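Input sequence (480 aa), recorded before submission:
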Amino acid sequence: MTQNDRLTLQHIIERVDAKAQSFCALSDRIWHMPELAFEEYRSCEEHVAALAAEGFRIARKAGGIETAFMAEYGEGGPVLAFLGEYDALPDLSQAKGIEKAEPLQRGGPGHGCGHNLLGAGAALAAVALKDALAAAGIEGRVRYYGCPAEESGSGKSFMARAGVFDDVDVAFCWHPNVVNEVVAASSLAFIQCYFRFAGRASHAAASPHLGRSALDAVELMNIAVNYMREHMPAEARIHYAVTNSGGIAPNVVQANAEVLYLVRSPDIAETKRLFERVRKAAEGAALMTETQASYQVTDAGLNLVPNETLLEAMHDNMVRIGAPAFDGDDRDFADRLRRVSLSDEDIAASVASHDPALAAHSLHEGILPMARHASVQMGSTDVGDVSWIAPTVQCHTACFAIGTPFHSWQLVTQGLEPAAHKGMVAAAKALASTAADCLSKPDLIARAKAELKRRTGGRPFESPIPPEILPEHLHSSQGR
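Predicted structure, token format:
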């Protein structure tokens, strides 16, 4: 028997199953302690403890971020990196396993994107691969990156800027979803920025002519940007939220106001061009209102670079592993949730880009074919920055009822369900087995790196975040 014969799919499956219960319990603990961007202190410590107990060496404060870390096992061979997340979302506190909105803490955070599962599932994959390599005597460095603030703050983007991924050979990640598939689509590059206006206060009735309204400037800027929408690429997106309206007294001319903008498009070059147009709208609004405008970019990220070489390997493994084995109880709860709490529009929208026929089912129990055409998912992720540095592959697995909206209480309430655990374990098997392929098939990493170079045109990674911007608590009120 050769070394590679001891790194088969069946060996990986056995290693994942052996540790699954422990890491499902980790996921549940993270669900019970939801923490927002750059504040995931307890969640970070839970992951550190779990990986340290498995023999991983721990390096804290990765990239200078308090709630980021790197765990590593092994000394030689390629660096195989698993990306984990554990941040929650604001205002999504929710009781478990019920079909109605019932916050545990009014206004409190909740895991409305399934990152309790995401971080634990990636850690399970890393541990399973470590166990398989140790048993087979094969060299390879297995890494787990604890990555904070994906929802708002772009932890991986700051980590990438700091160089923590520079020696990674291949990166693996996943995301809980309503379907089982490899992620062959790209994503939207983005720039997030606060625009602040300073004017002059006055009595709105007695001396309005002496005032210069910062709120007027915000409103004029928003009007200008809304008129831009007809004249920008169809796949681009611009969103905004007024974060400071200048006070609550209508008889005072507002001296200060602030608006947060998120500019997105399929590539960073177009995103930068759109951002400059938005910035000019702010300058024009300031000119019209005789106020002063300033801006502060808080975070930014690159579009995801798909890697077909790795996607094919992962898809093949997912087909061989099979979909999560849901049972009657899983289907019954999903059916009740859909019937009571999800609309027909929710259900249709969740699978419209995959296979509309899936809307008739409560849970996805197959593997979607791998997409062969270039496409862009209408969202952003800080995984994009990593994908410009090292070949990166990711999958989705079915953890929630078909129709579940992301960033919703309906998703939070499913986070402790057995179906969610089953999807997480299936993802760990897909990640770990594909990483094992990178060691047992010597040309796979070389071909993946050659594809990355071809897709990027050989351009090196360049962080879009201004160098003076630091990651401390630069997060918006919602995720991306």
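Checked by second reader. The mean pLDDT is 94.
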